[in-house]
């Protein structure tokens, strides 16, 4: 029996901060401008202990710093955690989200059962209260997450649950924060769910197991229907790209389709959106095998598909009035006597033929069939998300996903959703000059281009399958995993894309321009 991931609960509470009974009260401090009203009030209770830290230089409010002061009966809280927020003018909603994550991260490490967060008070008047409530809740889930379900001995004594409260003495502010906290909790739970599925290894999650996880998810959501196309149905539909990539594994490929039909009719003009996510449950590279070093991380080649799965969960729990189709092509890319080979020519679901130059360029081969499926379901908008190219990581590092597409308005909407959700993207080109590089002399296309501009040529390949739909492509290579812990997150899968895609869909459903 695998151990449960930590159970997190986030609520709001009206309370005077100095009297707030909790294991740890969390506040923020900017590095410029001195203490705010919240800190001054608490400093009096603590006999000047907060300002003494600043005076002796032990805590200045710089980013990625913190200080713990013990209440010793002088405050309702047993501990006060002060987090550095950096310069006031540089602070954003993501500053608040990461501060809440850092607080939850510290709480789990310190085995604290209950925390009260008053971080939003440092931003009062500068940011929308509902947005702040959502950011704090998302941060708490993100920072408290640990993936240790296969550890049979709980040697560190990690607690099984964390209770978090967003606290404020003003009832009007609590009322304004509350809807955001509720939304943030839904998104935070969905992102934690995505991280767990992503972190599970290839011997636990293969394509049939991922299909079962999707069916189990849909079973608990009345507005979601799940259809799975197994190998027989994939052959009937002539989905040659997906079949080719999965041909080397004993675990056959699957096309997982999740259809969310809202109970409330969408507003006029709201498009039907298809989210398409790459889910290679383990990617050895196939015949074109990868180097052994870090190949263990290739269990994370399924993170795009899992982001789609978790986004459908969040959308359904929030009951958003928008039609969403989730299309998740899943395969295991292994070398064997039945694997597809360099030199093969594959006929995709669209009818287009592809010359295989490298079996490690497999993501685009399963995505092209899934994108074609989305177009045939008459989707107005298609957004695909995938750990697609190492080239994108070379270009953007581990801080931003690549954003490409064929519609300026769609890309602008995704950019705004990225800014709001704290999951950063950067636009890259994918036009005709890149498409030219993907033409084959003996088939319609080839599955790899030249050495340069690999993220752009990969996107240009996918562009050949979108038809008349508005389309955007998110290359999340580099942002899908923390290779080592940060001050606000444990190592492993990040769940990148869940906040971004959910925020984008929320904006569409609310008819935001």
How much is the radius of gyration in Å?
Answer: 24 Å
CATH topology of the largest domain: Aminopeptidase
Architecture of the largest domain, according to CATH? 3-Layer(aba) Sandwich
Strand content: 15-25%
Principal-axis shape equals elongated
Q: Give start-end ranges of low-pLDDT stretches.
A: none
Q: How would you explain this protein's 3D organization?
A:
With 513 residues, the chain is α/β, with parallel strands linked by helices. The chain has 2 domains: 8-197, Leucine Aminopeptidase, subunit E, domain 1, CATH 3.40.220.10; 216-509, Zn peptidases (Aminopeptidase, 3-Layer(aba) Sandwich), CATH 3.40.630.10. It is 35% helix and 20% strand. The strands form 4 sheets. Strands 7, 8, 9, 10, 11, 14, 15, 16 and 18 form a 9-stranded mixed beta sheet that branches. Strand 12 (345-347) and strand 13 (353-355) form a beta hairpin. The longest helix has 29 residues, at 171-199. The model has no long low-confidence stretch (mean pLDDT 95).
What would the keywords be for this entry?
alpha/beta; Aminopeptidase; elongated; 20 strands; Leucine Aminopeptidase, subunit E, domain 1
Question: Strands, helices and their partners?
Answer:
Blueprint: E1 7-14, E2 24-30, H1 37-45, H2 49-55, E3 66-70, E4 79-86, H3 93-109, E5 114-117, H4 129-144, E6 161-168, H5 171-199, H6 207-219, E7 224-229, H7 231-236, H8 240-245, E8 254-260, E9 273-277, E10 279-283, H9 303-318, E11 324-333, E12 345-347, E13 353-355, H10 363-376, E14 381-386, H11 390-396, E15 401-405, H12 408-421, E16 425-427, H13 432-436, E17 445-446, H14 454-463, E18 470-475, E19 481-482, E20 492-493, H15 498-509
Parallel strand pairs: 1-6, 2-4, 2-5, 5-6, 9-11, 9-14, 10-11, 13-17, 14-18, 15-16
Antiparallel strand pairs: 3-4, 7-8, 8-11, 12-13, 15-18, 19-20
């Amino acid at each position: 029996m695998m151990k449960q991931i930590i159970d997190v609960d986030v609520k709001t509470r009206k309370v005077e901060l100095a009297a707030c009974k909790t294991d740890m009260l969390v506040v923020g401090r900017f590095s410029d401008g001195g203490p705010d009203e919240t800190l001054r009030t608490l400093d009096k209770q603590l006999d000047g202990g907060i300002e003494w830290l600043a005076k002796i230089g032990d805590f200045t409010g710089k980013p990625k710093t913190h200080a713990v002061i013990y209440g010793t009966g002088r405050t309702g809280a047993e501990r006060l955690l002060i987090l550095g927020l950096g310069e006031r003018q540089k602070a954003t909603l993501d500053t608040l989200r990461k501060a809440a994550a850092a607080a939850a991260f510290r709480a789990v490490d310190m085995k604290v059962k209950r925390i009260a967060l008053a971080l939003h008070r440092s931003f009062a008047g500068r940011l929308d209260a509902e947005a702040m409530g959502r950011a704090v809740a998302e941060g708490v889930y993100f920072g408290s997450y640990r993936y240790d379900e296969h550890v049979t001995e709980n040697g560190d004594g990690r607690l099984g649950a964390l209770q978090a409260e967003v606290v404020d003495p003003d009832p009007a502010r609590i009322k304004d924060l509350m809807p955001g906290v509720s939304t943030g909790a839904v998104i935070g739970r969905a992102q934690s769910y995505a991280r767990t599925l992503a972190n599970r290894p290839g011997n636990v999650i293969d394509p049939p197991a991922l299909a079962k996880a999707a069916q189990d998810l849909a079973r608990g959501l009345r507005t979601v229907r799940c259809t799975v196309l197994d190998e027989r149905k994939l052959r009937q539909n002539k989905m040659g790209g997906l079949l080719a990539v999965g041909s080397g594994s004993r675990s056959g490929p699957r096309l997982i389709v999740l259809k969310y039909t809202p109970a409330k009719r969408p507003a006029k003009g709201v498009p039907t959106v298809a989210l398409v996510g790459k889910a290679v449950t383990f990617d050895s590279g196939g015949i074109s095998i990868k180097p052994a070093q870090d190949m263990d991380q290739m269990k994370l080649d399924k993170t795009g598909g899992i982001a789609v799965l978790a986004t459908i969960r969040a959308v359904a729990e929030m009951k958003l009035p928008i039609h969403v189709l989730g299309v998740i092509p899943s395969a295991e890319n292994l070398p064997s006597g039945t694997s597809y080979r360099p030199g093969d020519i594959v006929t995709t679901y669209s009818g287009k033929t592809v010359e295989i130059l490298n079996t490690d360029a497999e993501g685009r081969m399963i995505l092209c069939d899934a994108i074609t499926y989305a177009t045939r379901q008459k989707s107005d908008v298609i957004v695909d998300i995938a750990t697609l190219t190492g080239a994108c990581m070379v270009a953007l590092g581990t801080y931003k996903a690549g954003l490409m597409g064929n519609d300026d308005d769609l890309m602008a909407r995704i950019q705004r959703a990225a800014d709001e959700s704290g999951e950063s993207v950067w636009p890259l080109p994918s036009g005709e000059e890149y498409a030219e590089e993907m033409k084959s002399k003996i088939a319609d296309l080839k599955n790899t281009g030249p050495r340069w501009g690999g993220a752009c040529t990969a996107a240009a390949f996918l562009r050949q399958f979108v038809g008349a739909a508005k389309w955007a492509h998110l290359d999340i290579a580099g942002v899908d995993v923390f290779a080592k812990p940060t001050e606000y997150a444990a190592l492993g899968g990040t769940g990148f894309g869940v906040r971004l895609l959910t925020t984008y869909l929320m904006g569409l459903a609310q008819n935001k321009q």
